[in-house]
Specification:
Blueprint lengths: L3 H7 L2 E7 L21 H8 L2 E3 L2 E2 L4 H10 L3 H4 L20 H7 L3 E7 L17 E5 L26 E6 L5 E5 L2 H24 L4 E5 L22 H22 L6 E7 L25 H4 L3 E4 L8 E3 L3 E2 L3 H9 L15 H4 L10 E6 L2 E7 L2 E7 L9 E10 L14 H4 L3 H17 L16
Parallel strand pairs: 1-8, 1-9, 2-11, 3-12, 4-5, 4-8
Antiparallel strand pairs: 2-10, 5-6, 6-7, 9-10, 13-14, 14-15, 15-16
Helix pairs in contact: 2-7, 6-7
Length: about 450
């Protein structure tokens, strides 16, 4: 007989922190920290105890990135290639198989505390997608301003309503706890941290393995610190929030230590996409250019730290390409839980790479989308881009008849395309072009789900 205790001894817990619009260059271990007026001792210590990736890639927007990390599939496939604009009924169809469902099928308890942004209607909440419990917000933090604005009018549209902090249990309809206004926005990440620590304590007491997903609401606009941290940095609200975030990460690390589960827990810190471009809510992308909603490296690369004591080498760092979609098949291998075979999974198993059994990642390319528009392809240290935008919301999208090519080793800011020396570099179009053609063929093999598709959904044969 397999008991929860047996499972707990054999399979690791997983804690996955998923920041919001938190740039590559924010923590000290990525060149930020004191440079940003906000030391990050806890996040830096996590990097010292684990592996730091310099080339971890995500999708360019909030909703697509959340869809990709949970399904192991490009967001274009699931109907979530953009933040919800086309239809108020958005998010994952129940046909999709999420990371939470995989862990649940393997005997894990699953919890999410924080921002969902993958649906706000019946059947589209986290507890409909494999999570046993949830506390947080269904949509995005910018909606917190609605309730405080004298110009806001309710009852003009069924979806133009204040956002709420919600709580849910699998099998029950989530309940509205309180209006998510700017004051609630200040304290939500502290509440999320407390709920996460309580979850860890309950599951450890029951000796049940758990998957804990913590999609914090910071550093999404409006970036305003908790009262406890206001003025803490002496360098403004953004630096206060960075210090606040590092403190919460430290609390979670300490809780794992206090419960005696740190040795058997995979602990990950990462982000959904690069920074917002608007002042004063803009995070720091480090050496990369571009904000979210662009196909530039500042949009696609985010910090990624993974710690698994005695499994992943301490203090290791590399520039190998890994994508957020790779986490699903990697965890599938680690916990020995099979994924569905009736759909395309874009993620690639990185277990041996993370465990140091090989030096190279199993991935060498990434397709670059911005919304539902295909911008180009990243292959090894090169990019081949047929569309570009420098700064979201401010600049027009440029389309090129002949794609621009970049070498990220010599031009990390993507300022000097190789086309000026085109006869030296046209060979890049063959390997990069093959990646692109193969991807486009898979969209014919399995047509993408259309945004706004209702449940029940089954793919056409």
């Amino acid at each position: 007989m397999i008991t929860h205790q047996n499972i707990a001894q054999e399979k690791p817990n997983v804690i996955l922190i998923f920041m919001d619009n938190y740039g590559w260059g924010e923590p000290g271990c990525y060149g930020g920290g004191i440079l940003r007026g906000a030391p990050s001792p806890n996040i830096d210590r996590l990097a010292e105890q684990g592996m730091k990736l310099l080339n971890f890639n995500v999708e360019a927007q909030c909703t697509p990135s959340r869809a990709a990390i949970l399904t192991g599939r490009y967001a274009i496939r699931t109907g979530n290639s953009s933040v919800p604009i086309e239809s108020p009924v958005y998010g994952l169809t129940q046909w999709e198989y999420t990371m939470a469902e995989m862990f649940g099928d393997a005997g894990y308890s699953t919890g999410i505390f924080g921002k969902w942004h993958l649906g706000h209607t019946e059947g589209r909440f986290p507890t409909d997608q494999g999570f046993d419990e949830w506390y947080g917000i269904p949509n995005s933090s910018d909606e917190c301003a609605w309730a405080d604005d004298s110009r806001f009018r309710e009852n003009v549209h069924p979806f133009a309503v204040p956002e709420y902090v919600m709580e849910g249990i699998k099998g029950q309809s989530p309940k509205k706890i309180k209006v998510y206004n700017t004051e609630a926005r200040r304290e939500i990440d502290g509440e999320v941290t407390l709920k996460a620590k309580e979850f860890m304590e309950r599951k450890s007491k029951d000796q049940q393995p758990f998957f804990l997903f913590i999609p914090y609401t910071q550093t999404h606009m409006p970036v305003i610190p908790s009262e406890k941290f206001k003025g803490k940095s002496g360098n403004g609200d953004f630096a206060d929030v960075l210090i606040q975030t590092d403190y919460y990460v430290g609390e979670l690390m300490q809780k794992a230590d206090d419960l005696g589960i740190a040795e058997n827990t995979i602990f990950i810190f990462t982000s959904d996409n690069g920074p917002d471009p608007t002042t004063p809510h803009s995070s720091f992308a480090g050496p990369w250019s571009g904000s979210y909603f662009t196909g530039k490296e500042g949009s696609l690369r985010v910090p990624f730290i993974i710690r698994w004591p005695n499994k992943i080498k301490k203090g290791s760092a590399n520039n190998e390409i890994v994508h957020e979609m790779d986490l699903l098949p990697t965890f599938s291998n680690i916990i020995q839980q099979q994924l569905p075979s009736d759909r395309i999974i874009d993620g690639i198993d990185q277990t041996d790479f993370f465990l140091g059994k090989q030096d190279s990642s199993n991935r060498e390319s990434v397709i670059v989308y911005v919304g539902d528009e295909l911008y180009g392809v990243k292959w090894r240290n090169y990019k081949m881009m047929s569309k570009e935008i420098d700064k979201a919301f401010a600049d027009p999208t440029r389309t090129y008849g002949v794609p621009l090519m970049y070498d990220l080793h010599i031009d990390p800011k993507e300022e000097n395309p190789l086309n000026a020396q085109w006869y030296h570099n046209t060979w890049i179009r063959w390997p990069a072009g093959e990646v692109l053609v193969n991807h486009l063929n898979t969209l014919k093999e399995e047509p993408p789900i259309k945004p706004g598709t209702l449940d029940p959904y089954l793919p056409s044969k």
